[in-house]
């Protein structure tokens, strides 16, 4: 049975307990970046599908027309002072790292990180004599990738379409009652 956020499998075996369940995607869905996981019970199992990486967010950030922009809206809440740009984003947990790909003629370097903010410094000059940019410039352009851990919502199974993609499901539910002379682990 398909729901808005998961696929439901009903088990009509009269189980005593779940031994295991494995869910995997085939090569078609793997190439699309689809991941899956299950919440397993004796009578019902729910399969959830995910199509976003849980360990990073990224977007092209730039200054134009008197304002900061995040091309796809990943970053926002921009403040700029003393060459430092602070921007907000969804919660990525504590710690993490930043990867930057400069696309302008100023050097961009990662600054302080919190769970919901990332700071970048913009500098001009040569190494050994770098100076912080005093105000935003249209040459401030960088692709920002913020690494960490975030909660990714499941996608609707109805939105996953492939004429040849498959989910592989394998599991074992220990039947009730446990056969005489066996423990639940042995049956």
Please give a handful of descriptors for the protein shown.
187 residues, mainly beta, five-stranded antiparallel sheet
Radius of gyration: 24 Å
For the biggest sheet, the summary is: 5 strands, antiparallel
Oligomeric state of this protein? single chain
Alpha plus pi helix count: 1
Our estimate of the beta-strand percent is over 45%
Mean of pLDDT: 87
Structural account:
The protein is mainly β. The protein is built from 1 helix and 14 strands. The strands form 4 sheets. Strands 7, 8, 10, 11 and 12 form a 5-stranded antiparallel beta sheet that branches. A 4-stranded antiparallel beta sheet has the order 6-5-13-9, with no helix packed on it. Strands 1-4-3 form a 3-stranded antiparallel beta sheet, with no helix packed on it. A hairpin with a 2-residue loop joins strand 7 and strand 8. It is elongated and about 80 Å long. The model has no long low-confidence stretch (mean pLDDT 87).
Can you give me a brief rundown of this structure?
The protein has 187 residues and is an all-beta fold. It contains one helix and 14 strands, in the order ββαββββββββββββ.
């Amino acid at each position: 049975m398909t729901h808005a956020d998961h696929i439901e499998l009903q088990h009509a075996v009269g189980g005593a307990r779940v031994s295991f369940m494995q869910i995997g995607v085939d090569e078609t869905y793997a190439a699309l970046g689809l991941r899956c996981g299950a919440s397993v019970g004796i009578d019902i199992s729910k399969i959830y599908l995910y199509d976003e990486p849980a360990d990073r967010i990224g977007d092209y950030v730039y200054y134009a027309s008197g304002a900061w922009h995040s091309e796809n809206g990943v970053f926002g809440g921009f403040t700029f002072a003393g060459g430092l740009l602070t921007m907000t984003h969804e919660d990525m947990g504590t710690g993490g790292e930043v990867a930057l790909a400069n696309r302008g003629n100023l050097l961009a370097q990662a600054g302080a990180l919190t769970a919901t903010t990332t700071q970048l410094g913009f500098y001009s000059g040569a190494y050994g004599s770098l100076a912080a940019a005093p105000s935003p410039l249209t040459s401030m352009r960088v692709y920002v990738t913020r690494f960490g851990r975030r909660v990714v919502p499941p996608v609707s199974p109805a939105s996953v379409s492939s004429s040849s993609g498959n989910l592989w499901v394998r599991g074992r539910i220990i039947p009730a009652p446990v056969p005489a002379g066996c423990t639940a682990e042995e049956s």
